[in-house]
Design brief:
The protein is α/β, with parallel strands linked by helices and 325 residues long. The chain has nine helices and twelve strands. Strand 9 and strand 10 form a beta hairpin. It binds zinc ion. Zinc ion binds next to helix 5. Its cofactor is Zn(2+). One of its GO terms (molecular function) is metal ion binding.
Length: 325
């Protein structure tokens, strides 16, 4: 059976309709894999500013890279980042203020997963509850959240629902406007957020998918047979059968099997007409939005009108346009 047929056969639970919805506006910081400012390949690190319409409450999904990473991170992490330093737009809290919103009013910070390019800096948001999956607070975020109100989504403990192609989803506001979905694989506690962006009837949604995958064409039907990639471990072998004593190839996902399962579930969501998937480093959309800045904070158009405005892209794979050069 083809991958497309496997994905089409995944169980799908209807997404509940409802009146409440959220506005979603991306903020982008830029990360490059090269220290050269002229490198052709650049991917964004998105944070998403979300405004819950019925209550006016605001929150973030992911905080990107902390602006002060050169002093704010521990030495080993700084040394890891230094060879390909990110090009930063600004501190998320300061950017929010520049756009006329008060960081102190932010009531929640939802973090997709534990990695340094998503956990950011929570200090500008003193009143925010910090939300993450089971292992999200084990790294830098754990140090930052000492004494703060946190919500850890452990699927064996919280009440969850089957929503769309996801087996576990948590209704964050209790009104179906934000479902935090179990999208483990990249890390054990990885979360995606399914946000209702326009109300019923015919509600629309964005699925903020963090690091479910990094190559955006992994979630698109394509003639190319994309798979998650492995690479040789330091001092290891590409061929564990030939060199059983050496470290096997590794992958940027902590559980490759689960990561692929999550990619398939995410791709199933993308197949819905009323769902638009946006990845944490989605350079397909970054290429569009960097030239159309009213979608990006501090401009306010956001992406909640994506259906009406025709923002969802076909994700047609064009190697010369999208691959690293
Ligand atoms: Zn990332």
């Amino acid at each position: 059976m083809s991958i497309d047929a496997v994905i089409a056969a995944l169980p799908f639970s209807p997404i509940p309709e409802g009146e409440s919805y959220c506005e979603v506006t991306p903020l982008a910081q830029i990360i490059t894999p090269s220290s050269s400012a002229t490198a052709l390949y650049r991917a964004p690190t998105f944070s998403f500013y979300v405004k819950h319409e019925p209550s006016g409450k605001t929150l973030f999904f992911d905080l990107g890279i902390r602006y002060d990473w050169e002093t704010g991170f521990a030495e080993d992490l700084r040394n890891f980042i230094k060879p390909a330093p990110p090009v930063m737009v600004g501190d998320v809290g300061a950017l929010l203020k520049e756009g006329g919103a008060n960081p102190e009013d932010v009531s929640g910070v939802i973090i997709s997963h534990r990695h340094w390019d998503h956990t950011g800096n929570i200090a500008p948001f003193p009143k925010a509850e910090v939300v993450g999956g089971i292992d999200t607070f084990n790294a830098d975020l754990g140090r930052q959240t000492a004494g703060r109100q946190t919500l850890v989504l452990d699927w064996s403990r919280v009440k969850s629902s089957k929503i769309g192609s996801f087996d576990h989803a948590y209704d964050y506001f209790g009104d179906g406007s934000i479902w935090l979905c179990d999208s483990a694989g990249h890390t054990a506690g990885h979360l995606s957020a399914l946000v209702r962006t326009t109300p019923s009837p015919n509600a629309t949604y964005v699925l903020l998918s963090g690091d479910t995958c990094h190559h955006p064409f992994l979630i698109s039907p394509t003639t190319h047979n994309f798979r998650l990639a492995t690479y040789p471990a330091r001092g290891g072998s590409d061929n564990p059968r030939k060199h059983p004593g050496l470290p096997p190839p590794c992958c940027m996902h902590s559980d490759m099997e689960r990561a692929w399962d999550t990619v398939c579930r995410t791709r199933r969501m993308e197949a819905e007409d009323n769902v638009m998937v946006v990845l944490g480093h989605d350079y397909v959309y970054w290429r569009e939005w960097r030239d159309n800045l009213n979608r990006l904070w501090p401009n306010k158009a956001g992406i909640h009108g994506w259906k009406k405005d025709g923002l969802k892209m076909e994700r047609k794979y064009e190697p010369e346009k999208y691959d690293i050069q």
